[in-house]
Amino acid sequence: MLTDLIPLRGGAFPMGSADFYPDEAPVRTMTVEDFAIERHPVTNAQYAEFVADTGYVTVAERELDPALYPGVAAADLQPGALVFRPTPGPVDLRDWRLWWDWAPGASWRHPFGGDSGIDAIADHPVVQVAYTDAAAYARWAGRRLPTEGEWEYAARAGATTTYPWGDDVMPGGTLMANTWQGRFPYRNDGAAGWVGTSPVGTFPENRYGLVDMIGNVWEWTTTRYSARHQAAPDAGRGCCTPSLEPDPSISQTLKGGSHLCAPEYCHRYRPAARSAQSQDSATTHIGFRCVVSG
């Protein structure tokens, strides 16, 4: 069953931020057309329905082409994906390799490797999906992936504050999103009891009735990443049908932050925040949701 769509009237809004990371600037007025967006990220159960119907094989489940990855050891070209592993204690936060591990056999079915599964987390966002895997689901659903402009417009829900609910990260002591609680990357106290992803809708919805726009999982957009905001033609309206094959040399823009975002390392659980990810990347903290044009 597909996720309910929330229709949104288009309009203009101040996109970006000058207060945090350089790639969020400059702030500029963005206009989006009418569109509708899924209420929550695509879940494991929903992605399983897509795969059962189509037989689709995700990027993480395929053998890697050595020609696309010159110099990479043959052992690292087998099917698999990146898995987050907490460290034993404090580490140098400049080196992400200390907490990310290449796990053979990891895929959307087995998020943490061959011995893991999704039976108990059917209502959690699907992860370990590369950009083209998300686009394939969207095509099957008769929908598409959002542009960065559309995504940010929906996440802000009319607000111009730091977070869609205001400028206080925890208003009245209420945890508003699934983000890292504790000390990254070695002590995770859990967000409302959840270490890792949480069931969609666990945390409060925004003013538009959307859930998990902040935290839980990063979400793919069709906007190619650039170090600073560009006045790109795809920034505010749907275009540019993704290729069926990922190009590891191209990075897409991710939005929303995830359960791994912590203030001392990744203060990106804000509508303006963005991150770069190569099209072939599949990890334990990236998912997606779909939209349709108005």
TrEMBL record:
A Pfam match: FGE-sulfatase
GO molecular function ontology, one term from the record: formylglycine-generating oxidase activity
SUPFAM superfamilies in alphabetical order: C-type lectin-like (SSF56436)
Domain Sulfatase-modifying factor enzyme-like, residue spans: 2-291
Name used for this protein in its record: Sulfatase-modifying factor 1
